[in-house]
Amino acid sequence: MTYGLNIFVRSMSVATTGGSGKGFAYGNSWQYNPRSDRHSKILCWAIFFDLLVRENLIASHIRSEKISFGINHTMCDFRHNRKKDLDLVICRRAATPTTLAQVQDFHSMVSAYSIVLTPGEQELLAQLPQIPLTTVQTALVAIEAKAAMTELGKAQPRIYDELNSSHATIHGDTDSAIAAGFAIVNLANNFVSPTRNPWNIHDGLNPPVINPHKQPKDAEGMMKKIAQLPRRSSTGSPGFDALGLALVNCANDGTPVTLVRSPPAPQPGDLFYYDNFIERIETIYSSRFGAL
After folding, report:
1. How much is the average pLDDT of 129-148?
2. 2-16, 65-79, 270-284: least confident range
3. Residues 49, 279, 238, CA angle at the centre, nearest 5°?
4. Beta bridge partners of residue 260, listed in sequence order
5. To the nearest 5 percent, what fractions of the chain are helix, strand and coil?
6. Closest by alpha carbon to 26, among 190, 205, 151, 191?
């Protein structure tokens, strides 16, 4: 059983005011804003949560205090001197913990990013040991999350390039590290874009500008582009070690964000299905880092 995608859509249903730039300067709150990294942090937290509550070597290494995690860690491609900040990195645990903004440990990310958990998930979280935020010594797993919410045809090259540069930078820094990428694609028919609404959308003076989508064509086009990303089955070659994809309905108008479970969303056994993504990380980690 996995919890991550349900945690993601439940948490993203909550609009927040945190962020900067267009959309946040007019008293608006948003479920998704491209100027904020909240969506990527929630998704990476949820992925890590799923890895921690299962019986696997990652959870065992956490309990024995061999590993911890870092966020917004800068990795550098040694060959090309290309740098990139990764959303969440599982790494060897440093002797001294660190703090970033409101985050001191894994548990504190819940309040820092307004992550919404069920009572059962809260109980599972309470059973986990303290997992301090750490400075990254050696990256073992690096996770990059991206969301394609609107203007999906126009966004295809950008999403592809951002994800493609992630695995290249991760492996250019540490070839043995597991490069994990996950993409959220919006299947909603309409979307209220924060960057196209630079005013207070609730004062009745200016109705919100709504981006229409041609679904499922737009989402399927983005999915096909993501499927072109290189993947690898062993070290020494380029590509993601684990790559996942999920569809959501997010109108960004205050209505609940929901997970799409039926086609064209990946189905159980499909290459990009979330559970397969989690299991692949577990399997590769066990084979590469069993002697840690």
Report:
1. 91
2. 65-79
3. 105
4. 247
5. 35, 25, 45
6. 205
pLDDT (tens digit per residue) in 222-255? 999 999 999 999 999 999 999 999 999 999 999 9
Distances in Å between the Cα of 205 and the Cα atoms of 15, 49, 196, 200, 201 are 21, 43, 15, 8, 8
Contacts of 261 (CB under 8 A, 6+ apart): none
pLDDT in tens, 149-175: 999 999 999 999 999 999 988 898 889
Strand order in the sheet with 139-148: 67-77, 82-92, 139-148, 178-186, 242-249, 258-260
Alpha helices in the chain (DSSP H): 4-12, 38-52, 57-63, 109-112, 119-127, 152-173, 217-227, 274-289
Kindly report the number of other CB atoms within 10 A of residue 243's CB atom.
23
Contact of 226 with 161, CB cutoff 8 Å: no
Q: Are strands 139-148 and 258-260 parallel, antiparallel or unpaired?
A: unpaired
**Cα separation of 244 and 260, whole Å?**
14
Name the domain count of the chain.
1
| CA 85 – CA 101 distance, rounded (Å) | 16
- Both tokens assigned to 212: 């229409």
For the stretch 199-228, what's the b/e string if a residue is b when 16 or more beta carbons lie within 10 angstroms of its beta carbon? bebeeeeeeeebbebebbebbbbbbebbee
Task: Please confirm whether the linkage preceding 207 is cis (ω < 30° from 0).
Answer: no
Q: Residue type at 257?
A: V
Structure-token pair, residue 162: 């951002």
- Cβ–Cβ < 8 Å for 270, 261: no
* Rounded CA separation 185/147 (Å): 6
| pLDDT for residue 23 | 47
Domain range spanning residue 30? 4-289
Three-state secondary-structure class, residue 94: coil
